[in-house]
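Good morning C.,

I know you're traveling, so I'll keep this short. The sequence:
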Amino acid sequence: MDQERLAAVARTYTASMTSIRGRRVNRLIMRRMAGYEHVLPAATADGAPALLALSADGRAALCHSDGRGPSADLVACGPTPGVTVTSAHDLTKDSLPVLSWTVRHPGLLDVAGPLTIVPGEAEQEEIEAALRLR
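The C-alpha coordinates, ready to paste straight into the viewer:
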Protein backbone atom coordinates (compact mmCIF):
# COMPACT_ATOMS: atom_id res chain seq x y z
CA MET A 1 0.00 0.00 0.00
CA ASP A 2 1.18 3.49 -0.78
CA GLN A 3 2.77 5.05 2.35
CA GLU A 4 0.82 8.30 2.00
CA ARG A 5 -2.49 6.43 1.79
CA LEU A 6 -1.56 4.25 4.78
CA ALA A 7 -0.58 7.36 6.75
CA ALA A 8 -3.96 8.97 5.98
CA VAL A 9 -5.87 5.84 7.06
CA ALA A 10 -3.78 5.61 10.27
CA ARG A 11 -4.33 9.31 11.09
CA THR A 12 -8.08 8.95 10.66
CA TYR A 13 -8.12 5.81 12.83
CA THR A 14 -6.12 7.42 15.65
CA ALA A 15 -7.77 10.88 15.53
CA SER A 16 -9.95 10.24 18.61
CA MET A 17 -7.04 8.99 20.76
CA THR A 18 -4.95 11.13 23.10
CA SER A 19 -1.98 12.71 21.33
CA ILE A 20 0.75 10.50 22.81
CA ARG A 21 -1.16 7.21 22.56
CA GLY A 22 -2.51 8.16 19.14
CA ARG A 23 1.02 8.78 17.85
CA ARG A 24 2.14 5.42 19.22
CA VAL A 25 -0.76 3.49 17.71
CA ASN A 26 -0.18 5.37 14.45
CA ARG A 27 3.48 4.31 14.48
CA LEU A 28 2.48 0.69 15.18
CA ILE A 29 0.12 0.74 12.18
CA MET A 30 2.76 2.27 9.92
CA ARG A 31 5.34 -0.34 10.96
CA ARG A 32 3.23 -3.47 10.98
CA MET A 33 0.69 -2.86 8.20
CA ALA A 34 3.02 -1.40 5.58
CA GLY A 35 3.50 -4.75 3.83
CA TYR A 36 -0.18 -5.22 3.00
CA GLU A 37 -1.87 -4.19 -0.25
CA HIS A 38 -5.03 -2.86 1.43
CA VAL A 39 -5.67 -1.33 4.86
CA LEU A 40 -9.32 -0.60 5.46
CA PRO A 41 -11.37 0.92 8.28
CA ALA A 42 -13.63 -1.74 9.80
CA ALA A 43 -15.68 -2.44 12.90
CA THR A 44 -15.54 -5.43 15.23
CA ALA A 45 -18.64 -7.46 16.17
CA ASP A 46 -19.24 -5.14 19.15
CA GLY A 47 -18.96 -2.04 16.93
CA ALA A 48 -15.47 -0.96 18.01
CA PRO A 49 -13.38 0.70 15.29
CA ALA A 50 -10.60 -1.41 13.78
CA LEU A 51 -8.22 -1.49 10.86
CA LEU A 52 -8.15 -4.54 8.61
CA ALA A 53 -5.08 -5.20 6.45
CA LEU A 54 -5.31 -7.61 3.52
CA SER A 55 -2.70 -8.99 1.16
CA ALA A 56 -3.03 -10.82 -2.15
CA ASP A 57 -1.05 -13.77 -0.76
CA GLY A 58 -3.73 -14.53 1.85
CA ARG A 59 -2.24 -12.71 4.83
CA ALA A 60 -4.44 -10.51 6.99
CA ALA A 61 -3.95 -8.37 10.08
CA LEU A 62 -6.24 -6.56 12.48
CA CYS A 63 -5.50 -3.67 14.81
CA HIS A 64 -8.19 -2.63 17.21
CA SER A 65 -7.18 -0.30 19.97
CA ASP A 66 -8.82 2.78 21.41
CA GLY A 67 -5.43 4.04 22.61
CA ARG A 68 -6.29 3.35 26.25
CA GLY A 69 -4.91 0.64 28.45
CA PRO A 70 -1.37 -0.66 28.71
CA SER A 71 -1.11 -2.24 25.27
CA ALA A 72 -2.31 -2.31 21.69
CA ASP A 73 -2.80 -5.68 20.04
CA LEU A 74 -2.11 -6.54 16.45
CA VAL A 75 -3.49 -9.88 15.24
CA ALA A 76 -1.92 -11.41 12.13
CA CYS A 77 -2.82 -14.51 10.19
CA GLY A 78 -1.15 -16.04 7.21
CA PRO A 79 -2.23 -18.24 4.39
CA THR A 80 -2.39 -21.29 6.73
CA PRO A 81 -6.03 -21.50 7.90
CA GLY A 82 -6.56 -21.05 11.63
CA VAL A 83 -3.07 -19.88 12.60
CA THR A 84 -2.99 -16.46 14.26
CA VAL A 85 -0.29 -14.55 16.10
CA THR A 86 -1.30 -11.68 18.37
CA SER A 87 1.45 -9.29 19.40
CA ALA A 88 0.74 -7.05 22.40
CA HIS A 89 2.72 -3.77 22.14
CA ASP A 90 3.45 -1.63 25.20
CA LEU A 91 1.70 1.73 24.74
CA THR A 92 3.45 3.22 27.78
CA LYS A 93 6.83 3.21 26.00
CA ASP A 94 7.71 5.20 22.94
CA SER A 95 9.54 2.26 21.32
CA LEU A 96 6.37 0.07 21.45
CA PRO A 97 8.17 -3.05 22.69
CA VAL A 98 6.35 -6.36 22.45
CA LEU A 99 4.98 -7.47 25.82
CA SER A 100 3.99 -10.92 24.58
CA TRP A 101 2.89 -12.96 21.61
CA THR A 102 -0.11 -15.28 21.69
CA VAL A 103 -0.10 -18.07 19.12
CA ARG A 104 -3.24 -19.96 18.14
CA HIS A 105 -2.65 -23.00 15.98
CA PRO A 106 -5.51 -25.39 15.14
CA GLY A 107 -3.28 -28.43 15.64
CA LEU A 108 -2.37 -27.37 19.18
CA LEU A 109 -5.53 -25.70 20.50
CA ASP A 110 -7.12 -28.94 21.75
CA VAL A 111 -3.90 -29.96 23.49
CA ALA A 112 -2.58 -26.71 24.93
CA GLY A 113 -4.95 -23.89 24.01
CA PRO A 114 -3.44 -20.57 22.93
CA LEU A 115 0.29 -20.41 23.63
CA THR A 116 1.94 -17.29 25.06
CA ILE A 117 5.57 -16.32 24.48
CA VAL A 118 7.11 -13.59 26.61
CA PRO A 119 10.23 -11.66 25.56
CA GLY A 120 13.22 -12.57 27.66
CA GLU A 121 12.55 -16.30 27.39
CA ALA A 122 14.06 -16.14 23.90
CA GLU A 123 15.67 -13.53 21.69
CA GLN A 124 13.12 -11.07 20.32
CA GLU A 125 14.56 -11.21 16.78
CA GLU A 126 14.35 -15.02 16.79
CA ILE A 127 10.75 -14.94 17.99
CA GLU A 128 9.73 -12.31 15.41
CA ALA A 129 11.37 -14.34 12.61
CA ALA A 130 9.73 -17.59 13.72
CA LEU A 131 6.27 -16.06 14.10
CA ARG A 132 6.35 -13.88 10.99
CA LEU A 133 3.44 -15.09 8.89
CA ARG A 134 4.35 -15.25 5.23
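Safe travels,
E.
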